[in-house]
Amino acid sequence: MFEQTGIPERDMIIEKFPPVERIDRGPVAIVECYKRIPCNPCETACRFNAIRVGEDINNIPVTDHEACTGCKVCISKCPGLAIMAVDGSKSKETVEISLPYEFLPLPQKGDQVSALDRAGNFVARVRVVSVLNPKSFDRTPVITIEADRKHMYDIRNIRTEEH
Ligand code: SF4
Ligand code: SF4
Predict the structure, then answer these.
(1) Domain tally for the chain?
(2) Is the CB of 70 under 6 A from ligand 1?
(3) Which residues are CB-neighbours of 158 under 8 A, at least 6 positions away?
């Protein structure tokens, strides 16, 4: 299925996530790279050595979720938009999900937007809790939304009213 559609199956997605106990301690990167490709900006972007590709640049990156501080820098540096972050420390009912977003206009903090799954299907209406867009992110802003925990493994994109 993944080979035909490029859309990972649920067990593939869950395998990339750390245990819920880690998510509940604070933000953590989820590196959704599933194929061997010659690429490693994620590794060089992380000053905490939490993402390792290793000597063979084709290796699939491995994430050390304990070393990850959830700084979100790698989200902006991945050319494949393959990295997100999840933070379950704020509430028992919701999680904050941080996603790369390259469309304009950017949503604003407090906006309601549509959350989409990996196939582009609507999941839920969610609230934007922050928009990170410093120069160092080089035109790949990181949008953080708050979502019901039951959608933690589903949400992978957002759509504003304009798109
Ligand atoms: S979020 Fe920050 S600490 Fe975590 S893997 Fe990405 S760059 Fe490294
Ligand atoms: S930078 Fe992105 S696409 Fe490249 S290896 Fe890392 S996660 Fe995969």
Answers:
(1) 1
(2) yes
(3) 99, 101, 107, 113, 114, 115, 116, 126, 128, 143, 145
